[in-house]
Amino acid sequence: MMMRRPEEECGIFGVFNHPEASNLTYLGLYALQHRGQESCGIVSSDGSNLHAHKSMGLVADVFGNPDIFKTLPGRSAIGHVRYSTTGSSVIKNVQPINVDYSRGSIAVAHNGNIVNAQIIKDELEAYGSIFQTTMDTEIIVHLLATSKANSLLDRLTDALNRIQGAYCLLFLTESRMVAARDPNGFRPLCLGRQGSAYVVASESCALDLIDAEFIREIEPGEVIVIDKNGLTSFFPLKKAEPTPCIFEFVYFARPDSHIFGKNVYQVRKEQGRQLAREHKVDADIVIPIPDSGVPAALGYAEESGIPFELGLIRNHYVGRTFIEPQQAIRHFGVKIKLNPVREVLKGKRVVVIDDSIVRGTTSRKIVKMIRNAGAAEVHVRISSPPTSYPCYYGIDTPNRKELISSSHSIDEIRRYITADSLGYLSEEGLMSTVGAENAGFCTACFTGGYPVKFPRLMDQQEPQMGLFEKETAEK
């Protein structure tokens, strides 16, 4: 069984007016691979037609044959890497979606989740629409096609004002590329330039790989149209108070990215420093759960004065599936990904830094693995508050009954994961790491305060009571 944590959502990337548009898009998707590892695709435009190549698998595998780029001609392209949030993980759901309709051809790539998707889909089907995928993204295409407006911008405005939730979108037609970000700005989206070409990406690390200049972040509620006349910015959507996702800083974004006005690495180090201020402990070494826990562990070590060590080594070549041997191996799913360094851990009082605890099962196995390697004490520190509520804005988190902190106290969780102590970063402490001026972040996964209300209750399952009592008996 693979280690279970909140899964990344999706990554989008687009280039307009570059002779190697599809190749640059491939590189951009490579840099965004951490945001989705199930499938990927590229759609290009040669000025007259759209061309697509997409498949299940990682970017390097799907586009490993250089001849593929001969089938993706043109000076403009958009691409997508996916981890499913709505819709199953099958080939028909691979993005970008590209369709022909009465006004020409259009492709769309989407990062996020539309919370009123089912209501709109039911309405469209009642009027005869036929859906070929199970993704909420296809709803946007249908709304675009059924709009009575004349211009592309007006049709997009009609469509986007109907949907609610989180979305960063890239559209590609024969002659233009359009980028849009939802009014709440849940997910990051940035604008760059490479020579005379414009580039749009989920994170700035994708711009760095192709030597593109970072211009700015695309603002919440902004729609950018890029065509032969250049770039034009519009704000045609219903206004809302921006609520970017705080968990992008905790876990999802790459540390070298610049999002929401901050460098991710610096924020994560500060999370570790603040964690050390809030939860001190007498210990010999600080170790991270690699790789996401590394910056926070460095910050914790610096603030506490406790030496930083790599006590767990990650196998970077683990795929999404593997065959477990018939003879049972304890904690196999964790051990195939992480291996303890006994010489570092033996006899030591260890502080283990991780970004979050979801179900608690993986944390439990890691703590036991560290103990089995000879650690004298294991103190777990988490660089975010307890995750007690699911995300409905583009993150694949378990439902509430599977989130251990939704029904158990911190001490109960500590006893379940068999740690000597457990400390979470406070919500106030987390917000202090991104600056007092950025108090508008979405913290729904910690507080249950959802910025965009649902048209119907999406999570009717209560927390799973008795999980701790049941599983602690399995010692």
Any descriptors?
475 residues; 16 helices; 21 strands; disordered C terminus
Description:
- The chain is of the alpha+beta class.
- Helices cover 26% and strands 24% of the residues.
- It contains 16 helices and 21 strands.
- It has a seven-stranded antiparallel sheet with strand order 3-2-4-1-10-9-11. Strands 5-6-7-8-12-13 form a six-stranded antiparallel sheet, with helices on one face. A four-stranded parallel sheet has the order 16-19-20-21, sandwiched between helices.
- A hairpin with a 2-residue loop joins strand 12 (223-227) and strand 13 (230-234).
- Helix 4 packs across helix 5 (152-160) and helix 8 (264-278) crosses helix 9 (294-304).
- It is globular.
- The two termini are 19 Å apart.
- The model is unreliable at 1-8 and 459-475 (pLDDT under 50).
List the helices and strands and how they pair.
Blueprint: E1 10-16, H1 21-31, E2 39-45, E3 50-56, H2 59-62, E4 76-82, E5 97-101, E6 104-114, H3 117-126, H4 137-146, H5 152-160, E7 165-172, E8 177-181, E9 190-194, E10 197-201, H6 205-209, E11 213-217, E12 223-227, E13 230-234, H7 247-252, E14 258-259, E15 262-263, H8 264-278, E16 285-288, H9 294-304, E17 312-314, H10 332-335, E18 338-340, H11 342-345, E19 349-354, H12 361-372, E20 377-382, H13 410-417, E21 421-424, H14 427-432, H15 444-447, H16 467-472
Parallel strand pairs: 16-19, 19-20, 20-21
Antiparallel strand pairs: 1-4, 1-10, 2-3, 2-4, 5-6, 6-7, 7-8, 8-12, 9-10, 9-11, 12-13, 14-15, 17-18
Helix pairs in contact: 4-5, 8-9
Keywords: 4Fe-4S, Glutamine amidotransferase, Glycosyltransferase, Iron, Iron-sulfur, Magnesium, Metal-binding, Purine biosynthesis, Transferase
InterPro entries: GATase_2_dom (IPR017932), PRTase_dom (IPR000836), PurF (IPR005854), PurF_N (IPR035584)
Binding site for Mg(2+): 292, 354-355
